[in-house]
Amino acid sequence: MIGVVLVGVYLFHRVDSSSDRAATATSALYGRLSLAPQFVAEGEVWRLLTANLLHSNLWSLLASLLTLALVGSEVEARWGARRYTATIVIVGLATTLTTMALVPPVSRWATGTAAMLGLIGAALTVARRAGFRIWLIALVGVVDLLVYLGSAESSIWAALGALAAGVMVAFLLISAPDDRRRNRIQAMLLGGFLLLLIIAAIILIAAY
After folding, report:
1. What is the pLDDT of residues 11-67, one digit of tens each?
2. Contact, 141 vs 12, CB < 8 A?
3. CA torsion 144→149→154→159, rounded to 10°?
4. How far is CA 79 from CA 11, 43, 199, in A?
């Protein structure tokens, strides 16, 4: 489902772009969804999440789809749809917050491929325990990183923020006791982490 949304957003973005200019500079959709710090500070907080749906070029989109197919599918099968969705939301928010906090202000950011590195971090953290293929996850992660850093809109801080958030999510999930309280405690831990990110977002926006 996430892959379908990414493809749909990208196609609409391309169709809506002028053929004689860079797509990222002309698409109205891109302008409304991208991470534009000055607009986030003015109240358009949805950009903190929607920027993760955007890809600046076809290679970035393909890298994200590859990650979802080879890594995301295994993580979802292991953790279930709810935990997987929570992971996507948390790493996406961590990616954009890290970008806003540590990267000099720019007009727009597309952070889709960077956010995918959060799945890589989460999968690598539990790979041995879950029986995942470590070499495959690492390979996909390298491809993601190279494609993302090779794009015009990229920041190593966004990538590191996503990776760190993915590792933290995985650590919180596996730290819950393996008994009937597990689901409730996992929900509380992830909810607490998300709350901390929301508080960080409020502080960052207020100080921007």
Report:
1. 887 776 654 444 444 577 788 888 888 889 889 999 999 989 988 888 989 999 999
2. no
3. 50
4. 30, 34, 26
Q: Cα(136)–Cα(124) distance, rounded to whole angstroms?
A: 10
Using CA atoms, how far apart are residues 65 and 57, in angstroms rounded to an integer? Answer: 13
Query: Which residue intervals of the chain are DSSP H helices?
Result: 2-15, 23-26, 28-33, 37-41, 47-50, 58-67, 73-79, 81-102, 112-130, 134-149, 156-175, 182-207
Using DSSP's 3-state secondary structure scheme, residue 54 falls into coil
Cβ 55 vs Cβ 67: under 8 Å: no
Alpha-carbon distance 179 to 67, whole Å? Answer: 31
Q: What percent of the chain has pLDDT over 90?
A: 52
Q: If you search the block for the tokens 């889709």, which residue do you land on?
A: 112
Q: What is the CA radius of gyration of the chain?
A: 17
